[in-house]
Write a structure and sequence with these properties.
The protein has 533 residues and is α/β, with parallel strands linked by helices. The chain folds into three domains: 271 residues, Alkaline Phosphatase, subunit A (3-Layer(aba) Sandwich), CATH 3.40.720.10; 110 residues, no CATH class; 93 residues, Arylsulfatase, C-terminal domain (2-Layer Sandwich), CATH 3.30.1120.10. It is 31% helix and 14% strand. Strand 15 and strand 16 form a beta hairpin. The protein is globular. The C terminus is likely disordered. The chain binds calcium ion. Calcium ion (CA) binds next to loops. The site of calcium ion has 6 residues, from loops.
Length: 533
């Protein structure tokens, strides 16, 4: 071989490598996102679930990637969390502050910018932002909360029913897109957005027997009386004891022809609507599971704390059964990536829109800035970039996702986004001036569950919250010694300096994020939705 030929051959090889590495520098993004899945219901996050392991696939993702231990939302409720992710802006900036709002799809969102950067984008499942999603090459979204069984989905060409359990239906749609609708010449960003494990916690039929004979450990705060909290914590409506409904939330004696008492009309009836939607076969399996358990309940009539404990068991089991479905979905999606040869160049992300109370503080639902609902799971596998099995301790938020996706795609980062790309952290770097605190603001009152408006700051060690709706109420916690937030240290002499420092930082944060929303709103306690205990 002549020298010229050798040089030419080398040149071809170098060019080939260059093209390959350029292709590699634009990885695909698979973003699996669930609803109300608290980190403490994931094996890889340490929680009270102990030996019960509801999430082997998610745990494996953490072993292969990075788990963000200090991951938080900025407004703990479904729609607003998703709007923050779409825009990289806090609720007061993107305009979607409450679930009752409608998202302005005409504003800048990360999927639109990814499209501009040459990515193919798709979303399947729960959007919760109302209106037709913009910025996606293909999509199918649940109307509103959607149903667990045989749900309707809105497709670009209209609405139609798809048979099956919602988690499976959404996974099937995403897999079909990967196999048949993907543009082989472009990198993709695929969002698989599950309804589960959102209320009313209705698992796929195959998961009903799961945890049947298992005792779910109770959280230590199951019988919390909120003695040290601001008054809001005592007038909420999300207690397992007083507000979780035996029929609609726990399916006791619930059938499609169930007749509700007039006093119970304010109940969320989605469980009942799902039953009306089931096929006779699905319904028979459902009733065969719960029928004997219901008869047993009536034979052993429980009251007081024993009733709370019974409700907690049934609730937690159904919640974890729904989680199991989500875990299986992640597993199936990853298997599909492998089969299609996409595993090496696809970033896989698992997250959920906020945390949740699974009996913690005696509650279900979310909304509060307390730890269980403030925290979000975030696990990222990035083959060849993220060091497997890494625990990241820096403070991150859903506010950061948009810029992270854009940097991954090599797209420009807009100046008006308010988060920070997580790419340096994913690459194992220690970025200077990483945030030392996060900002939070919840707005939805009066509304279901009656959690008053509040905002606050959380550092790695402390939390300060301002509840302003019923007057001037503050809470402060030292999370290092009081992780359950039972001992309010606001106004205590020993903590005066820390309190002053946190208060200053909180008001600086409000300025930094330009949150000038009205905090002078004052409301009386509203008992409209309140049921008799
Ligand atoms: Ca949610």
């Amino acid at each position: 071989m002549s020298n010229t030929m050798l040089i030419l051959l080398l040149l071809v090889l170098v060019l080939h490598q260059l093209a390959h590495s350029q292709k590699k520098s634009r990885p695909n993004i698979l973003f699996v996102f669930s609803d109300d899945h608290a980190p403490h219901a994931i094996g890889a996050y340490d929680g009270w679930l102990g030996s019960i392991n509801p999430t082997p696939a998610i745990d494996r993702l953490a072993e292969e990637g990075m788990i963000f231990v200090n991951s938080f939302c900025s407004n703990s409720i479904c729609g607003p969390s998703r709007a923050v992710i779409q825009t990289g802006k806090h609720s007061h900036k993107n305009g979607f502050m409450n679930n009752g709002n409608s998202f302005n799809w005409n504003q800048q969102t990360f999927p639109k910018l990814l499209q501009k950067a040459g990515y193919q984008t798709a979303i399947y499942g729960k959007s919760h932002l109302k209106g037709k999603p913009l910025g996606y090459d293909d999509w199918a979204v649940l109307p509103g909360q959607g149903l667990y069984f045989n749900p309707d989905l809105i497709f670009p060409d209209g609405i139609r029913r798809v048979d099956g359990h919602c988690t499976d239906v959404v996974t099937d749609l995403a897999i079909d897109w990967l196999r048949n609708k993907r543009d082989l010449d472009r990198p993709f960003m695929l969002m698989v957005q599950h309804k589960a494990p959102h209320r009313n916690w209705m698992p796929a039929l195959r998961h009903l027997p799961l945890y049947n004979d298992v005792y779910i450990p109770e959280p230590t705060t199951l019988f919390d009386k909120w003695i040290d909290n601001a008054p809001g914590a005592r007038v909420q409506e999300l207690e397992i004891d007083r507000h979780m409904d035996l029929n609609y939330d726990l399916f006791l004696d619930l059938t499609p022809d169930f007749t509700q008492l007039s006093s119970e009309k304010s109940q969320d009836r989605s469980a009942w609507r799902n039953m009306k939607r089931m096929t006779s076969g699905q319904l028979a399996t459902w009733r065969n599971h719960f029928g004997p358990l219901d008869r047993n309940f009536h034979l052993n009539g429980k009251t007081g704390k024993e009733l709370v404990r019974w409700k907690f068991q049934r609730y937690a089991k159904n919640y974890l059964r729904c989680v199991k479905g989500v875990d299986e979905s992640l597993e199936r999606m990853q298997q599909e990536l492998t089969q299609l040869g996409l595993e090496e160049n696809t970033i896989v992300i698992y997250s959920s829109d906020q945390g949740f109370y699974i009996g913690d503080h005696g509650w279900y639902d979310k909304r509060w800035m307390y730890e269980e609902s403030l925290k979000m799971p975030l696990i990222v596998k990035w083959p060849g970039v993220v060091k497997p099995g890494t625990k990241e301790l820096e403070m991150v938020q859903n506010l950061d996702y948009a810029q992270t996706f854009l940097e991954i795609a090599g797209a420009p980062l807009p100046d008006d986004m308010q988060g920070r790309s997580l790419v340096p952290l994913l690459k194992g770097m220690f970025p200077e001036n990483w945030r030392k605190e996060i900002y939070y603001h919840y707005y939805e009152y009066p509304s279901v569950h009656m959690v008053p408006r509040h905002y606050g700051i959380r550092t790695k060690r402390y939390k300060l919250m301002h509840f302003y709706q019923f007057g001037e109420e503050w809470e402060m916690y030292d999370l290092k010694v009081d992780p359950d937030e039972l001992n309010n240290i606001y106004g205590k002499k020993n903590f005066a300096e820390i309190q002053k420092n946190l208060t200053e930082r909180l008001f600086k944060l409000r300025k930094f994020y330009d949150d000038d929303s009205d905090t002078s709103i004052r409301t009386e306690y509203i008992e409209k939705y309140r049921r008799k205990s």
